[in-house]
Amino acid sequence: QNMKEKSSAYLQKAEKCASDLVFPFRDETGRVLQWALQKDSNWKTKYYLALIDWNQDRRNDAEALFRQCGDTPDYAPFYLARANFERDVQQSIYDCRQAIQRDKSNWRAWVMLSDFYNKAGDKQDALKAIRTIFQKHPQDYRLGLPYAKALYNSQKYGDCLSVMDKLNVLPFEGASESHTIYRNAHLMAALQGIEKKKWKQALAHVENARQWPERLGVGRPYDVDERLEDYIEMIAREKMGQKEKIEKLLAEIVSQTQQYQANPGPNNLISALALRKQGRKDQAMSLLRKWEKASPEDTLAKWAIAKFSGQDEQALQMMKSLENAPKLRPLIKIAGMEK
To answer: Is the pTM of this model over 0.85?
Structure first.
């Protein structure tokens, strides 16, 4: 009897403890939690057990436990965990909102809410969500970066660059997104400048896209593939009638094609456009075919071949699956301009 009383007392004590930084993952812990669940169906027990099942890839068991908790927990991180677990994006959005209701200062909840809105294709609400928390902490790059990303996704390139200009990102291993957003925003701004016949403005954006600002926390690689920058600069100089520079830029693009031919990828589209401009249509198509062979599941490669082959209806169908790939936006924009 004494042991039963002690175990009950310890269980009650455990249930009253804060859940911060509690991340159980071992099956041995799970057996203890199963015993605790038989004694008292506290949401914390179900939550901890769900984390273990999730870690062990027992998704159905984890889902059942998460569902049983309902909206009882008064603990924001619980809802963020469930939001990440969910397969349904609308349910993830709901859980993020539940987290915010319980802790409006939880910046991760706002960032996640913005991300899930973006996955749902709701760019306006994605931008609104991240702006709400960014305005309270404008110096925090952890919020500034996703805000800049949301602005880019919403095609607000000038506003995106204004935010990027004020960011100071701490470097960390594998970091690249800050420079990708910075570069793509400048490239898209350059293409907009070309459409508005503001050639010099376009060239300035291209030159900025070539830079690797130290404050973005990403170092310049030893080899940098600048076919995108070269091609956009070529378009601008073509409009300005600078024929000698056009030929030089086209030659540079083709040279880079040879340099990176062992790893065919999206920039092969730029190389194909350059070869076609030089009148080498067969080589351009061959380059695209090699890319498709190396990446048979790559929709962009298939889209490029359809575009080059004049299969406009097929290309239009594939475009729907590419619209939610903002990193590819400059490439697709260029291909659309160079019919």
So the answer is: yes
